[in-house]
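Predict the structure of NADH-ubiquinone oxidoreductase 213 kDa subunit.
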Amino acid sequence: MSLGPDPDEVVYHPRDAISSTAKTTAVTTLAGTTASAIQNTLTKQNVGAMGIFTRYGGTIAVFAAMGASYEFVKCASANLREKDDHWNTTLGAFFSGSMVGLKKGTLPAFLGYGAALAVIAGVYDYTGGSLSGYRKDPDVDEVARKEFLRKNRRRPIEETLANLGEGRGIHGPGYEERRRQRIKENYRIDLPPPNAPTHS
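Done. Here is the predicted structure for NADH-ubiquinone oxidoreductase 213 kDa subunit.
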């Protein structure tokens, strides 16, 4: 007997593939134009400013095709599968990488570039999509988390003293009295107790 949808199940919200594709294509076309301008600037022949489009226009086209194919396939896959996971990114990256291989004009390049980019993007998305490590839980206070880690790894002072000895800021109980005694024995200087009043 079904009591309704599972509350833990994530509800998928469809994406607007056309709008997302248009935005991504605009961004990647601008990036391609920048790359084309850099290529045009670094060329040895003087081809003029229009060389950005006449000589290196293929770079702009590849960037635009990569962005459009990635975003459209990613959104279409998510809408068809009704899941938002790393497989959508993998499929989009395969078609995006294939655009580079398409420029080469061979089937191995088409499949190779697509597979390479699919593996890189898919693994990156699967592992959290972050180069700085795991994502922190926004519901956990960072100060409390660090305090817990310190207490969790804190060792008893007796163990620390047994391993390292006293000094360097590590002092056991009765350290001041032992220090006064050592100074008195070695240098014949009688230091006052730490809490003794000083006479001016």
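Residues 1-5 have pLDDT under 50 and may be disordered.
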